[in-house]
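During the reporting period the student researcher (J.K.) took over the structure-prediction task from the postdoctoral fellow and processed the backlog of single-chain submissions. One of the processed entries is reproduced below for the supervisory committee.
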Amino acid sequence: MKRILVTGAAGTIGIHIIKYLLSEGKYEITALDLKNKRTLNRLKRYRRRINIIYGDVCNRVLMEALVKDHDIIFHLAGSSLPLADMKAGLADIIDFRGTENIVRAIAYYNEKSHLFYASSTTLYKDVENASVKTPIKLDEYDYYNTAKKKAEDLIREKLKNYTIYRLPLVLSHLSCEPFMYHGRKKDTMDYITKEDAAYAFVKGINYTKELNKKIFNVCAEDSLVYKDLLQKILEIHGVSFRYCFNRMFIEKNFYSPVCKDKDELNNIINYRNDTLVEYYQRLRGRSKKRKIYKWLAKPMLGRKK
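J.K. obtained the following structure tokens:
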């Protein structure tokens, strides 16, 4: 029985990875996340079926103890946008230093284990027809992307067994999970639902040889215009504090450029099952009680039209 470690296990993608792993019934699963009210609520339903550890990837001793006992490591723990780009040093501490602890532990204690690392297509910024071969050009204020790129470089330099997934705009549960509301309205973007993103990680377990030492852009088959997505979300879900905060105070744009090589991973592991239409249907089902927020969104929708 393979032993799987999931960092950031209570997050948008991590919680679905756990669901998919449990559905297969053939893995010993350890979930790692920080201890707070949100993570306790999200993980408590699984407490009798998996090992739950509350701790920080920045804790070197803890990571050494966990990494040496696992065959597959899904590393999703990290800072989130837009906060990571608002405070210098935050992403470096969480995204890079945390990854450094995991890489060191693998190199010293368990070099046969395979690391799946969640990176981001925001590395390409606003490059058209980006691919994993696109040169990465960052400036001194790209705190989040700089930390991600440093983590990728460290993984590629130090490990024998790894796969890097660069994820685009992730369509999530808007009531309880983060969403990138600070995109440019005119941009055409790649996206993926959290369900398909999680499935890509889980399916990768059976293809470690084919995926080893490679980077993939993990995206849906089609793309979307950000303005159309935003309008649909306001129509279905209404406004939220997160939407207002992002639109009023966040100065940096979120990028999720269209990638020309986004079919490469799907051609190997066939992870795509979800669609944008199905995402909107789920959003409607979860937003039935938000009548006041939908009413407040009408003036904004009027202006956009």
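The committee noted the following: The longest strand covers residues 27-33.
J.K. will present the remaining backlog at the next meeting.
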